[in-house]
């Protein structure tokens, strides 16, 4: 029965993909042009529907300034409320537990028996771009976000303009040609390019790219291994590469056993014996 169910699911996905391909490619096999509004609405209508997502298991590899670390863990996301991550070495007990909420970052360090509370500048320095809770949530769940961070994001994403390549639809914060003109005039100090590449078959974001010319930084976020969960396509592989000046970092996260709106979760309990380090008031 399991084999039959798998074959049926695979057939359904392929059939849906074929219909979408026929709708968005012309007879020459070229990607058809569509409006900005239709592209944005098509992606947003394919967002995963969830209240919670439990990544029961993930494997990660992080490189920062030539220092490479591999670890495993699990991640629990409660929409618009909190993201809790348990981090373990490849073989061993939990080392860190991290909680992200809209107004702060909390870290339990088992090795030092300490508890740190900080604002999001802690992550800005680590990942070389501005981050807040909702940006991280949207990156994890493969949704649109704007950069630099904006409190009126839904309105500003409509200012992005779309373009068509051979394989993807692209949505960009800066019109084609403007960057070249700015370069020629040496006026790139305040220029930020943010763009998305979108798969036309399933209208999911396959890539997000940020280039901030004012601080000489760029971040490349790639999604892969899309799988169907509760009728939603969710990427199971996330690759991130970033650079600011001569500093660079990379991260690859492979998610396994993804559960939407399940009863499983991760708690966040702080031992009274742990030393508190408050970086918010520093």
Strand tally is: 14
The appropriate CATH architecture is Clam
| Spatial order of strands in the largest sheet | 7-8-9-10-11-12-13-1-2-3-4-5-6-14
Runs with pLDDT <50, length 5+? 1-22
Work out the helicity level: 10-25%
Brief summary of the model shown:
It is built from 6 helices and 14 strands. It is an alpha+beta fold. Strand 11 and strand 12 form a beta hairpin.
Defining traits:
single chain, 282 residues, alpha+beta, outer membrane lipoprotein receptor (LolB), chain A, 21% helix, globular, disordered N terminus
Folded structure, characterized:
The protein is 21% helix and 42% strand. The protein is an alpha+beta fold and 282 residues long. It has a single domain (31-278), classed as Lipoprotein localisation LolA/LolB/LppX (outer membrane lipoprotein receptor (LolB), chain A), CATH 2.50.20.10. Strands 7-8-9-10-11-12-13-1-2-3-4-5-6-14 form a 14-stranded mixed sheet, covered by helices on one side. The model is unreliable at 1-22 (pLDDT under 50).
